[in-house]
Amino acid sequence: MEYSKKQKYIVWGIIIAALLIRVAFVMVNGSNMFLGDLDKFDNDDVKYIRSGMILLEEQKLVYKYPDQATAFIGPVLPMILALVFTVFGSDMNGIIAFQVLQAIIGTLSVGLVYVLGRDFFNKKIGIIASLIYALEPTAVRNTGYILTETIFTFLLLLMVVIALRALKSKTIKNYVVFGIIWAIASLLKSAVSLLFGVIFVAMIFYKYKPREILKYSVVTCAVFVIVMSPWWVRNYTQFNRFIPFTASTGNPMILGTFLYNKVDKYDLRGYIYGKTEIEQNDIEVRVAKERITRKFKEDFWQYAYWYTIGKTIFFWKDSFYWKRLPLNNWDYIIFPAVHMIHYTLLILGIIGIILCIIKDFKKAILPLGIISYMNLIHLPFFVMSRYSFPVMTIMIIMGAYGIVKFIEIVKPIEPKINQTTDGIEDSEAEINLEEQVLAKH
Q: What pLDDT digit, counting tens, does each position of 44-58 carry?
């Protein structure tokens, strides 16, 4: 069998295994994966479920308050939930069906990890990275949560795949596709709304001429505006103000002002609550800005550390929501191993990034840019592992690169030793032959 065919079988084997593992996980654990209470609607996941139900029944997007239209969240996840509920119902059957859909989307992400590893570097690195991501415990577990992360991870990976191809090909089509996916992803998580800045910088390293940078930037941004415009019109019509993405930055900004995520509710005494989500967000943004200004004046260096290095550590330091929702006693036993896997992948990723910068800086630009962007964009807010989860895929790819490069550095030692030994043996054989010839004469 040809080597290329073996690789295809391996890749498809990884993808099929990833699908079976994810589907099996949600079928067994799906009904126990709620962070909140379906009767109280007291957490993100159950609020999303309610949003999907009301969107289906009343064609109205809501979140915190079922009687108020919202711009607190983007429309993508509630729309997908509503579509699934249309077919399977909005009871537990519909919820499990959505989780199975997430299992499929999570599996597609495994495929995209392979494609990215291959396109960034080579097929071998793509295979290693996809195998790691197919089996990585938090990636499997995440398919059971009714949150944005599974779908967003897929969209982020798809954006990076298209961006890399656009940078290499310099074709309008790829930039148009990128603009569409960028807008949809921004309607799911506004954190990527400035992501094109990374592509803009990458164009310089890919030796684009200034007029090319301008042309492709205008095309991409124009497509982005076209896709986003219905959301903008809806928000202006509904709330009589321009809301580009979501009106939900206030609360995570306030929580982010507490050192080391130790939120003190008493410190928020006198906190004024608004009558609507929009009004409440405006108050929270104002209070957050006041707190940031005051805290930096009180202890500049401590807060400067917190808003840079401190939050970066919290962004990366944990595996995604493992301890928060223990499914059974095994979760407590398995967690140390999961934590170790997380740190191992981080270390390998950092090693891979360093090696890539040293060996081929141009190849490091896009993955390093995406990782840095996602880290930096979250620093003004409350940070946790939930937000680093999507870019752990890029870190895994860089880790696979590090593994392969390390093997390549170590492996050539053996052939050199053999080559030296063979050379000695050949020399000895030649000497013996010469002695035999001389003896005959």
A: 999 999 999 999 999
